[in-house]
What does this fold into?
Amino acid sequence: MKNIQAILCAGFILCALAFTSCNRTETTDPQQIVNQAIVAHGSQQLDQAVVTFKFRDVRYRVLRDQGAFVYSRTFTNDTTGQRIHDVMSNSGFKRTVDDVEVELPEERQKAYTASINGVVYFALLPYFLNDAAVQKEYLGEAKIQGEPYHKVKVTFAPDGGGEDHEDIYVYWFHQLRHTMDYLAYSYEEEDGRGSRFRKAINPRKIGGVLFQNYYNYTSKEQFPLENYDKAFEAGTLEKVSNINLEEIQVSEL
It folds into this structure.
């Protein structure tokens, strides 16, 4: 009887190891890694969908329809009490103040467009990682808090990469779950380049799409962006904020 139990136990362990091995991402192809993440997050459903959410007391609405898009945000000006409604789409940008359209210089339109686009980009990740301007590079494997990850660097081609095409991102994708659990990015500042590292928290599926909040970290030290995982493991990063999406709703077109 004991021999039978031992055989059954060994068989169970072998099956479990085989299952883990089959689900582990062995590929080093960054395109395949991103594709698996998009499926794991349910991001393919965003090709034709409307997503609404609140971020820092601003309400956002994201409509996407096979490449066509309309992004909007609505908020109240703390100083004047006026209701601001911004809309950006394939055809341009428009602002209304208390339901009256206002004229804006091109520079201001670009700034508001970049602000809206930035919030939407992070909120829907990894959805945008297959955009035409995205350039992917595999950086190797990593372990964070004992978990196995693939590390992928993303840069943008100048043609189609937007105003911030010089920004650089690094993503950590879990080798078993295929989820995007960490990311780091650099951005242009007035006095040089800054960087941040984010840890995903509170993952939840809404309308079949995985949404996450983040802890947002920075470092006083200068080092390559791809080494943020080592700094995080060493406990040398400084938490600067929480990135929380609230009142999320997803509906199909």
In short: The two ends are 60 Å apart (CA to CA). The chain has one domain: 28-252. Residues 28-252 form a domain with the outer membrane lipoprotein receptor (LolB), chain A fold (CATH 2.50.20).
